[in-house]
Each structure stands twice: as structure tokens, then as C-alpha cells.
Amino acid sequence: MGIFDFLIFNKKTTKRVFLDYASSTPIRPEVREVLRVSADESFANPSALYEEARDAKALLVDAHKSIARSLNTTANQIVFTSGGTEANNIALLGVFEKARERGNPRPHVVSVVTEHPAVREVLNEIERRGGEVTLLSPREDGLIAVDQVVDVLKATTVLVSVMFVNNEIGVVQPIKEIAQAIKRKNKEDGFHVLFHTDACQAPLWYGLDVSTLGVDLLSLDGIKIGGPRSVGCLYVKGGTQISPVMWGGGQEGGLRSGTEHVGACLGLAKALELAKKEKNESSEKVQLLRDNLWSQIQKHFPEASVNGSLKHRAPNNLSVCFPGVDAEHLTVALDTYGVCVSYSSSCRTLKEDSTSYVVEALKPECKGSSIRFTLGIHTTQKDIDVAVQALRKAVIQVTR
Amino acid sequence: MGIFDFLIFNKKTTKRVFLDYASSTPIRPEVREVLRVSADESFANPSALYEEARDAKALLVDAHKSIARSLNTTANQIVFTSGGTEANNIALLGVFEKARERGNPRPHVVSVVTEHPAVREVLNEIERRGGEVTLLSPREDGLIAVDQVVDVLKATTVLVSVMFVNNEIGVVQPIKEIAQAIKRKNKEDGFHVLFHTDACQAPLWYGLDVSTLGVDLLSLDGIKIGGPRSVGCLYVKGGTQISPVMWGGGQEGGLRSGTEHVGACLGLAKALELAKKEKNESSEKVQLLRDNLWSQIQKHFPEASVNGSLKHRAPNNLSVCFPGVDAEHLTVALDTYGVCVSYSSSCRTLKEDSTSYVVEALKPECKGSSIRFTLGIHTTQKDIDVAVQALRKAVIQVTR
């Protein structure tokens, strides 16, 4: 059953194939039920004092605890946010500003060229504020080496931020190894470098035990894991020196002011719980389909190539370069054949130059010719077959 | 029908009376229906390119248009946020930072002592960042005079922020008159002072035509008007010089990055539309009940006094000082009698000193002895009568 069957898209007469799960996932029925029940049972502001407010507060604590269980940490180390973008902003700007406040005049932040705009644009802001940013370039397989990180650390470095699963090309960075290397360096040289990972694309396929990973900060987003929209969270290891990016009532331990949406927090917790429970089965299933998609593409488009390592890659992602093809035109053509894909991050399509800077970092010649296929738990073999048929027609159409 | 009948609180055996609508309002059935339908019809990321994403984008544009209609402005002047706190943060920090960027080394911001923490705490942050803040003190009736504002404006002033309806004491500031005076001063002295109002508590009772009001920035929040949680918006007059507080995909005209929750935006638009349509009838109804509550309180507690002007006050608000009574104890006692109230802003209860700085600004002796009753569209005469009975018992109990 494909996703549009699942959603019972009655108004559509033709079947559609959705292969853009990295952009958005449909909210899961179990999550929707959590939202419904919590909306029925509680509307009070969890910061008030009466019984209904205390009930709401207790549910909010439950949501913290549940997320903490999924990440193998404690409830007070989870900060709810309005999504992955805000979680990344708090992680990066929060650590940067706190370091300045504590007397580091020009805090140094290390990251990677291929990060999501919600990290890249924050790094630009850090530079505008007088910080120093080092952007590492990945190898042609999309990965960075641990030594690349270690080599640029210095006494003024306050943070390293490396994405777990890349949103465009799906490559999986060696988070655990980087974390270990940073800790070693901190110990040897007396540095105080924190490590953040944007893990928004990871939970459906990988375990996120923060103590095993060894990260200090980790961002998650509901929309990427079948959860509610406009809710995410940031894991903040106890003792982390960090400032907020918004000020007000001091909710979420002072790190994120604004009345919490208790239902959405519970919904995110449920989505993460389901992701953790099903990740092995889901991974196996989508990887088979993804590999089949790649086999069929190779057969019909021998000149096509995968962007980034096929081995170190999320099982649901296939980013393919079709040499000589305009990716935007191909995306639009595929849409007319009923297939939904993206040609760079959705968040990039708002920019003037919407070609992929992620692909560019690996294979400059492919930056305007690459399509991202991302599968989800509802993807079927039929979806893959329809997509390949559509591709065959669409590629001819746009190269004519 | 009181609110807890409305919510069918089956699990409660006793009837409860909710008089804390300034803290939270139950989501309206019409809004819930909008959320349900939009969740069924669309899950796509509005920034993607395919049909479903364009549909989501069109719905998002509809939400902008609807809010714009309610405020008598155009769709591109509405920025969706994660709530009132974020809207206030963008308004204040955004104008402050943009002014610094444009060469004003120490931008001056003017506001009032009695503002919500989501303004007060942002002003503290502006001071920490090297800005200059002037906090005006209201008169004993809670109001500020137009001249108080005008007198402190100077060449470096970039922003005046004055709350429309105070969240604790309900007083209504002369927004239109302040706006006119600022414009006159700008013209006469060549100043460039912008005017922001936190109108989160206003839409259920007052019209918010931004051109009549003459404001440059106006904040709204879903939770205060029967809308969805975790969604708000900021009206930003075209041409306003303002920076974001978060960075990323550049959504909402670059002023608020992060994937939009289309359903929540539509829900907020619906709640605002209903508020506008019903405000006259709602105001008349709650004012009668509020006045009745005040009459009964005066009868039973002749020493009680209202905090702030009774005349220039939202029709649903009654902030009462009970001399010699500990407001926190009274709040807890009222809860045991089934009545929900607050003794200062809910957002303040997280602070160590949770007495009311708002009441303190008017009547220092009442800061720890004042209770906020806020009525809503579901409040009934029965609720008022039950509340008064509970008060009679609770006050005796806490003064024993």
C-alpha cells in the first residue's frame, strides 16, 4: 500500500507515488490518536497552578521522559522546540553566545559544507556576529574523516556540528568516532569542544543512544519521523554551557520560552518510540526497495551515478546524478507523471540558486542534475516500478 | 454551559469552574475541524515542488490571506511563528539587531514595566547586548499616558513596544493614540521609531485593524483565542527594517525559518476570523458576567479592590487585590474548591519570585495578594456564582 492509498487521496483520480520522505512524512495514526486524546483531555497551560494545569504539566513531564527513554538519557536533558530548525539554532547560537558571555571573544565553530540550511545559515550568522567558522569539505563519497575534524580544533573551538544522516544525499557520518576523537582531544589538550549532531533524518533507521554516540547536543524534528508538525527537540547534555535564542516565561529549563504544546510533545515522543521499535524492520524493507530502484535506474540509465557513498548511507535514500539533465525540469516532469521527488533540499527551493550545494561539494558537475529519491515506511515495490517507468519517460522529455 | 461541560470532562466527578482564560483557551471545534481536514488532505512540505506540495503552499497562502483580512492588511505582511513569545522576540530583537546592523551603535527601545515576560525578558536581553532600554511606569490605573512615550523618544530610539491588553490586569493601553504621537514625532524630529504591540490578549474583544491602529508590528497567539497551540503570527508592516532570530530555509519571507505547520496556520486564521466576527457579542456577554463577579466580590469582601482601571479594561478580566491574603495560597485553596484562577502570569510561576510585578507597578502592597479572574466565551452565571461561593470559603481558610 503506497502512501497515497494510505492517505485515501479520494480527490485524486490518478495514483501518485511519493518518494520525498526526507522532506515530510505523513503523521502516523498512533501519533494522531495521541494528539486527539490529549486535545480532549487537556487544554490548560502547564505553567498554571490548578489541577488541570498540573495534569498538563504531568503529561509534559511524561513526554520528556519518553523522549529520554528513546535516547537513553534523563528527562531534564530534553528541550522541546518548534522543530529541527529551532533545535539547530539553539545548539549553535546557544553554545556560541554562551562562550562569548564567558569571555571567549571569538568562539570557533567547526562544521561541514554539506549541512542542512538550518545549520549552514546559522553558521553564516555566527560569522556575522564575529565568530570564526571552519567548514570542512567531505571526500567524494560525502563522508568526512575523523582526522579532518581533529586537525582544525583549537583552544578557541567551542563546538563541532556534524549531521548524522545527510538530508539530501543520505550519507551517514561517523558520529561516534568523531565524538570519541573530540573527547580525546579535549582531554589531551585541555580543550572544551562540544559536539552537536543534527539527527533529524536518523531516527527511522538508526538507534540514537546519546551516551553511546557520545554527543553533547542532538536535534530531532517531528515532521521527518511521522510525528506532529512544528515540534522537535534538542538533547542537551547536563552541564552544557548554552544560552537560549528566545526569551520569555523561561519554559523548558529556561532554554526555550513559550507555552509548550503538550499534545505535540507527546506526539513527538510517540513517533520517536515507534521509530526506535521499528527501525530494524523498516530499514531492511526500504533498503531492499531502494536497492531495487538503483538497479533499475542503472539498467535504464547507465550513465547515472549515485551521489555519495552507497555503503555509508541511510537505507531510504538514493541521490542520483543524471548527467546533462536539468534536475528542476526533471522534478517537474516526474510530478506530471505522478511521482514526487526533490532535486535538492526542499528548504533550498526558496533560494535564488536552488541547485544543490551538497552535491556540488562532492561532484560539482552534478549539482544541477541530481534527483533525491527518499523512501518511507509506506513505499511499495509498485511505487518503485511506477517511478522507474515515469523516469524513463521524463528523462527523455527533459533531454529532448 | 461552562467550559468543563463543554469539554465533557468525564473523568472529573465534580464540576470545575475555569476562570483562567488569559492563560489558555480551549481549542474551538471549528478550528479543530480545520486541523483535521488539513491533516487528512495534506502532509507535504510546502517548500517542495510537486502537486501535493504546491497544494500545501496554496493552503499556506490562504492562511496568510485570511489573517491579513482579519487585520486589514496584505498576505505578505503576515509572518507565522511558533506563538506569541516568538512573535515578540522577532519584533523586539529583530528591530534592535537590524538597527545595529545599519549603524546605530546603541539602539534605544521604549516599553512599559507591566509588559509580559515575553517582552520584559527580551528587553533584558537587549540590554545585555548593549542596547538602551527605557521602561515606563504606568499610573495607578495601569495606563500609560501618550506624553510619557513621546517624552523619552530620541534620535537613537528604534522601537516602542506597548501591550494592547495586559495579560494580568487586563488594562487596555491607548495604542492608536500612542501610534499617532510616535508618527507625529517621527515627522517633526526626523526620527525613525517603529511601534510594536503585543496583542495576544486582544482579538476576542477588540478589532485589530492594523492601519487604523497605526502599528508597525503586532503579535498574536493561537492559545489565547481558541486556536491551535504553538502557533502565532507577527504582523510586519511592509518596509519594516527587521532581522530574524532563527536562521535556516528562509521560510516566511526569510523572517522565520523552519517548515510551516500548514494546518496550524489555517487553524489560527480560523480562530482569528471567529474572534473578529463574535467580538462584540462576546464582549457584551463576558462583561455582564465580569461586572456581576465584581459586584458579588465587593459585597462579600468590602476591602477588596480592582487592580487597574475598571473602565479601560478588557471585558473578561478582573484582577482583584484581597488585602492581607497570600495569593498563592488562595489560588491553591480555590483549586480545591474546583475553581481555576491565576495569581500572576502563568509564565511567571516558573520564577523564584512569582509575585506579580505587574500589580507591584500599580499597587506595591497588592503584589502578593492579587488574583486574576479571566472569563471566556464559555463562562456562565453559574460559574460566577460557584466561584464567589468558593472565594468566600477559601479566603477564610487562607486568612485563618
Structural summary, described in words:
The structure is a homodimer of 400-residue chains. With 400 residues, chain A is α/β, with parallel strands linked by helices. Chain A has helices at residues 3-6, 29-41, 51-71, 84-101, 117-128, 146-152, 175-189, 210-213, 262-300, 327-336, 357-362, 381-399; strands spanning 17-18, 78-81, 108-112, 132-136, 157-161, 194-198, 217-221, 232-236, 305-306, 317-321, 339-340, 370-374. In chain A, the strands form 3 sheets. In chain A, strands 2-8-7-6-5-3-4 form a 7-stranded mixed sheet, with helices on both faces. In chain A, helix 8 links the parallel strand 6 (194-198) and strand 7. In chain A, helix 9 (262-300) packs across helix 12 and helix 10 (327-336) crosses helix 12 (381-399). The longest helix of chain A is centred in the last third of the chain and has 39 residues, at 262-300. In chain A, 60% of the residues are buried. The interface between A and B is large, with 76 and 76 residues.
